[in-house]
# Entry
Amino acid sequence: MSDPATDTHTSSDGLWRWLLGGLSAGGIILGLLIAAYAIGYHRGQHHPRTTAASTAPAPAPTTTTAATTTTPSPGGPVAVTPALVAHGKSLYSANGCSGCHSLTGSPGAGPSFKGLAGSTVTLTGDQTVSADDGYLERAITDPDAQIVKGYHRGIMAPAISGFGLAAKPNDVRALVAFIKSEK
# Structure
């Protein structure tokens, strides 16, 4: 004959083992999901996707005085064409720009793109500049050159360093066209 006190203790032990095993398995699965998300999120920052267009060797950057001006593109104003805007939007989504720059006017780690183009921007030190094509291009290729008041130096530069945008003027112009389309 079995002892009821022993039977209760045995079934309690089994329940506790089952609960602890389930919690342990859940914790492991959660840890793996977080790790997978972190790897996927940071993938573009350190290892950008290779496409047929980007497999060609990039032209060697040249050092000129134009690189230090506020209008790095000698091509003149960026035309806002549907194709260029679409390319810029795909770069905005694929390269993680949306993680810091909203399209709604909401603040983030970086300024919102909504209404940015053509506006007057106040920089640290209370200097104001117009967010024209040259300013936008420089903000993309040399993000620590001029910091918008209320934001911090050293955030965007490391985040985009793996994309090599300074050597991809067509991508920069596409991003500028996309920003200009966000009114």
User: Anything to note?
Assistant: The longest helix spans residues 4-46. Helices lie at 4-46, 82-94, 133-141, 156-160, 169-181.
